[in-house]
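Our collaborator T.R. sent over the components below with a one-line note: 'Predict the complex.' Nothing else. No constraints on interfaces, no templates requested, no preferences about which chain binds where. So this is a plain run: every listed entity goes in together, and whatever single assembly comes back becomes the starting point for the next discussion.
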Amino acid sequence: MPEGDTLFRTAAVLDEVLAGRQVTAARGRAGGVALGRVVGSRVERVASVGKHLLITFSDGLALHTHLRMHGSWHRYRTGEPWRRSPRRAVAVIEVPRAVAVCFDAPTVELLDARAVEVHPALAALGPDLSGADPDLDEAMRRIRDPSRRGLTVGEALLDQRSQAGLGNVYRSEVCFIERVDPFAPVVAFDDATLRRLLATGARLLAANRHGHGRTTTSEPGIGRLYVYGRSGRPCRRCGTPIRSRVTGQLPRRTYRCPTCQPDAAGTAVPRPASAGVAR
Ligand SMILES: [Zn+2]
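Returned assembly:
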């Protein structure tokens, strides 16, 4: 699943291919984004913001995509066969000698500069943990906001309005590394612990930016991930079977070692119905 590290890398690759080049052809899916408007302009830059990707054009427009679970960006040389069906392409941008194709992304929109500034998802994003030198003070302030009191740690780590970039894999891994129960309420933890979770998240995102398979473990030879996707298998630290549970409006599975990550609060706080989580 694409998380902040994947998007950072995607943006870097697309920037190399597209930036400074003139768009010779561009199209969205039938009935989708009117990407033909950018033909003739130059690509200024490609950048990730958390799990969002923005391609900015010299005519002031920007293409915003969010890949969610199944979307991806590919780059090809002109004429090279695509690895997915053209029917799944939701955005195609051609420049001399190269073409960038976005497949299956549910969010694809062309925005002007003002719309980017006031975009409900983009403007609300917390500090980007996958960027250089993320603002952890601001992320802490957001996590401690009264509107988030009802969230569990796992929900708070996924809430892109607190801090952008972490996704479902990292939230399980970060909580394991810091020995925190992801199902415990945020309010059960002191600032030092929450800050450590954020710092570990930022460290993992940075370590995986350049992509040779996402790895969160630091000991060689024990596998790439500690708990994610390992339900029922022995904890890499203590041997206890890893447990998992599905939670959230968009059901996501969260993994935990019951021994290494004991139930910190003893009880779960009731969640207010309005405690939605932006992803
Ligand atoms: Zn364990």
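Summary for T.R.: The longest strand covers residues 43-49.
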